Amino acid sequence: MNPPQLHGGTGQRITRKSGSNLALSFICLPKEQRHAMSTFYAFCRTVDDIVDETSVPMHLRQGQLQAWRDDVQAIYRGQPIQPLAQELAPVVRKYLIPPEPLLEILTGVEMDLTKTRYETFDDLRKYCYGVASAVGLVSINIFCCQTRAAADYAIALGLAFQLTNILRDVAYDLQKFGRIYLPQEEWKTFGVTEEDFRKPTPTPGMARLLRLQYFRARHYFEKADRLIPPADRPHLSAALLMTGVYRNLLEKIRRENFEVLRGPIKLSRWEKLQALRRGRQLLKKEAPVRRPPSRIAVIGGGYAGCAAAFALAREGHGVDLLEAKPHLGGRAHSYREAKTGTTIDNGQHILMGCYHRTLEMVAEMGNLDRLDRHDRLDLHFVSPSKGQTVLRSSPLPPPLHLLGGLLGFAELTWMDRWVILNLPSRAQRHPPKQGETVQAWLNRIGQTSGSVRALWEPFCLAALNAPIQLADAALFWEVTRRALFGASQDAAIYLDKDGLSNLLSPELNAFIESAEGRVRTATPVAELTYDEIHQHVQTVKFKDGTEEKYDAVVLAVPWTPATKFIPSGDRASQLAATLKPGPILGVHLWTDQPLTPNLITGFLDSPLHWVFDRTSTLPKGSKGHLYAAVISAVTDLIDQTGKYLVDLIMGEIQRMVPESKNTQVTHHVVYKSRDATFWGQPGMPLARPGPVTSVENLFLAGDWTETSLPATIEGAVVSGFQAAEAFG
């Protein structure tokens, strides 16, 4: 494929000389339209070059722009003076181009004469509208678009193009012209200073700021795609080809990790031609029908709601994320403990390498550096009979990565190790049955009592927060397959460095708001109102008495409150009623001396299950140590006093870790959750609803919905992405 050969007057010569991406897309246009677009593009290029010619005094450049304003007006009233304006005049008249977008282009480029910083995105949007969206508004006339909706498409696509240009040219614009287009308000959100723009490598805050620009540009590309009027699609071939080129450029910037501070990241000529070739092939295919950009309420700011809001905003929708509490995170949030000033999680959570969707979302916001990553499974156990031993995987491919760990795990016999390594093949031949418990399934596939005691029961309690006598075998096998028998990196363990809520905020807020959305915390929802036959959500009513209309609602709250919002006749409401709460208990212990020598310690044959060393999260300058003790699937202990629980936990630790006998607890915080997770009915198939309900514009997310995963952070995030995909 070769670029179009442009011949003729001033406009064609300027366009040919520019070597622009835009000119490449003209190849698909009929000759007359190609000539018109070349002339119009030459006008855009000329007025932009006037502004960027810094060797010319300011007043002369302003005079040249004024001359162009006069010529644009003259096109409609008489005869323009400049040769290029004379070439543009018949194009304007033939394609009925109104003067407003041409004048907006001049206003936009003139902003580059006087403005080098932008306080907010609203300020930047005005600039982008002039230099890009207005270009699109002229172009759709030349393309002979027939619908009014084409204007909305042109505006959104122009924003996407210009935001991509701005991201590509961060270093070039600053070095050559002293301009920084990225909004200063967003610098402050990520702690970025002007000096950071002059560094060759992005700081962590700068990396987040650049990722935000990518997210916003992608949002507008998706929004534009959803706005394409079907009747006008045949007229928009050039715009669609150019979209392919620009989207490839945007994704290349992402793949190269936003290293734009050294200079522009560009597509090679071959990459451009490849993008055009793929684009021309796509033009021959029938385009899928997509929902128009919608205004969506996501109710619930836990990980499920955050994932749904993130995905929907990225896909071109406007989202209001509504959370009743003053912080995001839901049942996996963090807060500042009053007495010590320590940021602690409401309950101890870990992420694993197999949490692919969660890690994807955290990475998209640039927040992986807020996780402490341990490259492989490394769990220390203590028991009354064997003392201290360790289960540590190796970097070998599965299942060999687990073999070394099992060999060193003294709690196991050789037979125990053999049946554990054979579990995947046995599971393939004898998969869990519907409603089968973990205990029954493990017995059926020949797992020994030693393997169950030392590995499967502790793992089941940790992953499902349920005893093997009650836990669902299908859920257990799914999480076991991913975590222990997947790739070696899937067994990696991640702990948050500064609280689970800080994995989300303030980045998620900024990302949602960058995509025409809002994050509204401390905003409890009272009810949803429906039409007479409960097939459509009409309004969202808030507890303060106000209400708002949305095109759709994603309900991302736990199953118990969800039943208050879902119509009683809906299958999801009926399935939610069959779920039982799974309680969990956690105690944060501040101590004067170490309690356990390892990061994570599992306790066998004990009412205490896990102890995590969280000393690294103490505020700087703090003395002492911090630990998080966990008792999963707790029963009567949940009603005990804090003192009783601390005494019980300390007694168990000191019984099995003798070196902790002189350690004193200086402070403690108890966390009790009676519905931390869900359990099914023993012996009954575990039935959970999917994201779609009987209400046409109501969708569900939450770790209790059908994800094939238990109630984990990953299950919640997967459910949020599923809800976004179901909406479309």
UniProtKB/TrEMBL annotation:
Single annotated GO MF: squalene synthase [NAD(P)H] activity
Domain of life: Bacteria
Domain Amine oxidase: 304-726
GO terms (BP aspect): carotenoid biosynthetic process
Record keywords: Transferase
InterPro entries found in the cross-reference section: Amino_oxidase (IPR002937), FAD/NAD-bd_sf (IPR036188), Isoprenoid_synthase_dom_sf (IPR008949), SQ_synth_HpnD-like (IPR017828), SQase_HpnE (IPR017830), Squ/phyt_synthse (IPR002060), Squalene/phytoene_synthase_CS (IPR019845), Trans_IPPS_bact-type (IPR044843)
NCBIfam families: HpnD, HpnE
Protein name in UniProt: Amine oxidase domain-containing protein
Provenance organism: Verrucomicrobia subdivision 6 bacterium BACL9 MAG-120820-bin42
